[in-house]
Each structure stands twice: as C-alpha cells, then as structure tokens.
Design brief:
about 15% strand; alpha/beta; about 55% helix; single chain
C-alpha cells in the first residue's frame, strides 16, 4: 500500500490535466472531477480515477487540489452543499493552484478553517509546457507547516517552489508574474513587427536577442509562436485579461502605480474585444500588426 497522500483533483483543463498526470507518474493516487467527459477519460487512461461529483472526488482525500479558471469558479467548487468544504474530511489540505484574487484566497482560508480544512494558495507559472514538463514555478501562500507537508507533492509538479508569505501571498506574487509576462510579451510582439518591417531575418534576430540581455523565458518559450504565427492556446488571452484585472485592482488597493502595466492591460483587453480571447497570449502580436498595418510575409 502506498503511504503517499490520496489526492482529489478538481479541474482538468490545459494546465490541470498534465499536472494531475505528473502526480500519477510520481506514484500518487489521483481521483479527479471536471465538467468535460473527455478530460475524465484522459485521466482514467493515465491511471487516475474519474469521479461523478466534487463530493465523490474529495471523499477520503488527504489533499484536494483545485485548478480552475478564476475566483468565481473557485468559489463555485469550494462552497455550498455540494462543494469541497462541506464534503472534505477534517484535517484535509486544500491547495488552490488557480490564479485568483488574493482576497478570494484569504476568504477561502478563513472559511475552510471553520471546517477544519487547511488551505494553501499555490498558483503556478510556466504555461502548458511547464505543466507537461513538470518544471513549473510554484508561489505559495499559507502556513509554513502546511507548505512543508505539501512540498514533496509540489516537487512532482515544478522546480521552483517558494513560500511567499501568509494566505494570499502566493496570489499576489502570481499577479506580479502576470504583469511581467504581459509586458514582456507586448515588447516582444512590438520587436517582431519592427524587425519584419525593417526586412531583418526574424529567426536570426530572435536567436541573437534571446542570447543577450533581451533574452527571457517568455521569448524562449514563445519565439516559435511568433515565427510561425501559431497561436494555439497554451495560456489564453481571456485568462491573461482576467489576470491583468487582478493585478491592476490589487495595485490600486495598495497605491502602486502601474503605468506600463495599465497600458498593456488595455492592449490585452482590446485584443479580446476583437475576438482573439481564445488564442494564446503570444497573439498580442496580432494587435501590434493591426496597429502597424502589417501582414507577415
């Protein structure tokens, strides 16, 4: 019999499915629930156990992990008679790996404490590729002892695992992460159009740029998207729009100015309004192309 904790996984989307599969590969028992039947079939094919409801998924689980799009979805799966808190056993650890508002995380932790359920907020960065390769960066908020208990599990999912402070701290750091990523993507997109309109070999230019001070994980991960105009979603514009709302609201609350961040948030929102919300966030390139009257050769 395995001595590893039993896992309930709620949310098997672009990120959640490969993350749950990495836990299975590490020897954990994973019972999963999501709304899409094909995602449950994928979990079963990987060795997991599909559940017909949240209550069924969390019954007897030592650790419950949620990976859903935003605060409303976290609240929907956590609260109510059919939700996690009403059906989890006392002493269970709830790890929310979604990207939500810090305040939602703080409120969830308080509500869970009344039910005897411990909570960590543990959003991730690294996109679909990072989830598949188990090299995510995991930023965690919550009690040190709960972080220590969850650390072996996190090691099956990522390579940079840091407790950032109390409840909500992980989400605050994730908001800062999304700010940096969006601004970086926008700068890369502008550089791509500038280079192409100047007649430079784009592949060669991006290769040398990524080897110098302009290099970044964003450029390394997304340069092929730019080169091929392949905007198959790894992380959708819709979700980055949500995250930019989180960081701009949180910054306003604490009185931090985000002059470049607010402009980038507007560009993300514009792209979404133009119908590109379902594309990968590297599709910020499409917005720059429109502004520049540029069509790739």
């Amino acid at each position: 019999m395995s001595t590893l904790p039993k896992i309930a996984w709620i949310g098997l989307g672009i990120m959640g499915a490969p993350m749950a599969e990495n836990l299975l590969k590490a020897g954990y028992q994973v019972t999963g629930y999501t709304l899409e039947a094909d995602k449950l079939e994928r979990l079963a094919a990987a060795g997991g156990t599909p559940a017909a409801s949240i209550a069924e998924a969390v019954a007897g689980a030592d650790v419950i992990i949620t990976m859903v799009p935003a605060s409303p979805q976290v609240e929907a799966v956590a609260y109510g008679p059919d939700g996690i808190l009403e059906n989890a056993r006392r002493g269970a650890l709830l790890i929310d790996m979604s990207s939500i508002t810090p305040q939602t995380s703080v409120e969830l932790a308080a509500a869970a404490a009344e039910k005897g359920v411990r909570v960590l907020d543990a959003p991730v960065s690294g996109g679909e590729a990072g989830a598949v390769e188990a090299v995510l960066s995991i930023m965690v908020g919550g009690a040190q002892e709960d972080f220590d208990a969850a650390h072996p599990l996190f090691q099956a999912l990522g390579t940079t695992i840091v407790r950032c402070g109390p409840h909500g701290a992980g989400q605050t750091v994730k908001a800062a992460n999304q700010l940096i990523v969006a601004v970086n993507l926008q700068a890369c997109a502008e550089a791509v159009v500038f280079l192409e309109k100047s007649g430079v070999d784009l592949g060669a230019a991006l290769e040398v740029l990524n080897g110098g001070l302009a290099g970044s994980t964003v450029l390394a991960r997304k340069k092929d998207n730019f080169l091929r105009r392949d905007f198959t979603p790894g992380f959708r514009i819709d979700l980055h729009h949500k995250d930019m709302g989180i960081v701009t609201d949180a910054a306003r609350t604490v009185g931090a100015a985000l002059p470049v961040g607010n402009l980038t948030a507007s560009l993300v929102a514009a792209l979404r309004a133009q119908g590109d919300g379902g594309l990968d966030h590297s599709a910020l390139l499409r917005g720059v192309e429109r502004l520049s009257g540029h069509t790739a050769a």
